[in-house]
């Protein structure tokens, strides 16, 4: 089996595209670089398609590695024939490979192995031949010191037959298919724990049953968590009689005494070997699918969050609100550098609101503040109301910013390195302010799992989750581009071809030598070689540099081409950037070569039209209903402004300005069928919702997306 045909079969992409992409991956090219700067080679594949090639390439390599290990193990047992080796090599998936290897696994001491040592395999073969009606008489010939009577002999033979039944790939595949189609997942509560407080959130699953193939990922993960925490027991159920009959039809060909023994052996194989093994396999597959679904939801949310609207380079006063411990205030300049910090106490128990108002007002004037960011945690609403009472000398926009993960950042090594002389409260407030200015640049410093936009993120495969989220962060960072002269080490480390060590080297070089004046200077960074420069240069921006193209997504490898375009239009390189009339006169087809085709030329032209354009929207001010402060203020039928703060497969959660977020179930997003929640709402979208139901005791709020004019 070859790599490229394997990927083509799973992706339906063209063989040439796959072959060229694999070649680029083998040359250590990154996915963002390939999708942006090698479109001619890939056939214009996007990041998702290239990501699929990476996924199946890894899958193929893991399969081939496992084949080699199995062939080696079977060879060491002197059991490898040319035919068997060919079967191993021709396996196209891990399940069929493991089924084929099953008879050769060196397992712990089994009942069948004991029976073989007692000399009962010939008897098992006679029974399987199904030609004798005198099976007890034949069994009497196999008695010895370990096999005392005929019943012992027949039982031992049945154990061997049971193992043979279990190892038959046709039977396993047939039963596997039956489980996939008809298996039920059932749950029963652990009676000694049913009254525990923590068990109550799982009470829907105290006595639950549904077809496993129709169990949605979020419910399956909830059930698995309930079992893990010891509140329920899970069982896979199937029509046992039908399953046994299907197996019997494949094996039993007569109606004699041998058939009776085989029937008993099949029942034993089914109950003791097949059902437990394939039920676990089915649950594992369901878990993998649920993990994949949950990770996909998390990834979509994370992408929307990272590409959230930035306010831009503004002077920001950020407030981390609190009651007893006060509100921490920091003042940041346009680059996000900390200029001042202190604490005010406007809320109970101190209630020094007049002193707080004076202090905020004086800081706004002293540091020429242009916007105020308030964290959305404890005392957020009260602090927002206080700030909006202040009569500033000029209009100041006030934003409420998500604090999710800010405490993780403030206690992290990254935060300690950035602010070694300040405590966690100051670092947290700085993070809130910087999130308003540029969510992407700040959120990359936090472990993505801690940002709070996933479902069951602690229950899914953690390695897969990290890989997927890192891919999302890398994609977002490179799609926006990074200012090399202001970016932090964490942000730089996600740039194509850079990584943590080179990111540190860039910052060290910047600190020692001053700002980079051109992309060419990037080559002077320690250990940043030609490959790293090729992969990263197009994503690194230099504002007000020597070459105007250095602040664009045009790759340095295309600079000469752009210079030729400018010369042909009779203008300088600086004059062609953003020059609509000159750009309209360019005939792209005349610049096509073997290596540069229309996709790349069209990208270059777009960049020249609007160099360094940020694809993100600008931040918008938002205000919650000031009369709603806690869940008891809600009532059925209210229309409220809200912000979507999490999206799941079953709906989305909306922040309406109180501690509890409300749920818009997927059925309440539209009057028509909703296949994908993301087609109707996006993370941080400002919406109007209608209150459908309020369960104060369980702290649950049911909402509907309000349609304008309804």
From TrEMBL:
Domain of life: Bacteria
UniProt-listed Gene3D superfamilies: Nucleic acid-binding proteins (2.40.50.140), RuvA domain 2-like (1.10.10.650), Tex N-terminal region-like (1.10.3500.10), Tex RuvX-like domain-like (1.10.150.310), YqgF/RNase H-like domain (3.30.420.140)
SMART domains linked to this entry: S1 (SM00316), YqgFc (SM00732)
GO MF annotations in UniProt: mRNA binding; structural constituent of ribosome
GO-annotated biological processes: nucleobase-containing compound metabolic process; translation
Any one cellular-component term (Gene Ontology): cytoplasm
Positions of the S1 motif domain: 637-706
PANTHER family xref list: 30S RIBOSOMAL PROTEIN S1, S1 RNA-BINDING DOMAIN-CONTAINING PROTEIN 1
Protein name per the record: S1 RNA-binding domain-containing protein
Species whose genome carries this gene: Flagellimonas chongwuensis
